[in-house]
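Consider the following input, taken from an annotated entry for Monoacylglycerol lipase ABHD2 (Salarias fasciatus).
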Amino acid sequence: MTILEDGDLHTFSQELPAVFDGVKLAAVATVLYILVRCLNLMSPTAPPEIVYQDTLLSRYLLKSCPMLTKEYIPPLLWGKSGHLQTALYGKMGRVNTPTPHGVRKFLPMLQDGATATFDLFEALGDHSTGDDITMVICPGIGNHSEKNYIRTFVDYSQQQGYRCAVLNHLGALPNMELTSPRMFTCGCTWEFAAMVGYIRRAFPQTLLVVVGFSLGGNIVCKYLGENRSNQERVLCGVSVCQGYSALRAQETFFQWDQCRRLYNFVLANSMKKLILPHRDSLLSLNSSSIADADLSRVSAATSLMQIDDSIMRKFHGYSSLNEYYEKESCVHYIHKITVPLLLVNSLDDPLVHPSLLAVPRSLTEKMPNVMFALTQHGGHMGFFEGAVLLPQRLSWMDKAIVEYADAICHWEKKKRWSLCERSGHGDANVCSLNTEATHSG
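Applying the prediction step yields:
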């Protein structure tokens, strides 16, 4: 046994604080390293990657839309983390959210007696082109016009001279009872088509800008591609943060990479909170395809795929989950869109696997009307901007969409003037509705 002398004890006691200080420094260094890695602080900021064909329209857009070409700078301390961008968007939507005042419209659906609803917000001033232009907006999964990110975007669009119509997904509004045994699905366009039809009838002079967020992006692209007539009087379309193929997207949702399986669980719980309060309506209404056992399976579900298989696919009579995902995905319709189309995604979106971005990339190779913007940061529907900690009220996404829409509106206005001059009309308003032949750019 080794015996420590008094001198050795004194030396050892002097060394202990130095050892503890070293441990503290190592612990601090480890925590800082983890924070830097988790917050992705070393990732450089950059302009969005823009994929497009070299056309007169694309050149014009790149000159007219600085949001697409200048550096996107998220808040320094947390904005480079796709998870935090996504979580903050999901929790608060936006900062200092305005409260735009609109009128709620109710539309009976002839297909099955469902009641679609949307909110209509009038423009707060004239559009810079002088034209009557309406943004028809489809929100994300289970969302509606009262969500903070929608309210922020609508308020900003109104200020820029756009009338806005926002679809409330069937079954998503609190305290709004179903009038048929059906809720919204990931690709049903019936309610959106009813809203657009109402706008066309109520405002026969208006031109349309079609905007979809997340799941809403899938719906609007599918709507535009389903029928050529759906593109009449449409100036352009914008889709933000969608996954393009529901089948491929759901397969990636079972992966733990980027915590995708955890997001799957969280989204499934959110869907339960939407579906289960409608239990009585789904079971009691005539012609219901839903049984009590289906809703019990929904209660026990831990993934969106289980919920889709238990109930969502049955609303439209799909025999299998694969058939539901195939038929409701815009990937089979988007190539039929001929109006200018902006597709926006973020590379650090934890809900959209990078493999899904092959769809918009390949589209731009075949379709001169499509432009694909891919940001390095932004998460899922975040796109917050700011200096260090606090984000700005408007996001990069809000400003980029309106800027793109403005550029297209002016492009189309110039084309109408040119057509009017060649046809001998002195006033472009004479040709204002004759836009179908000029949309393809």
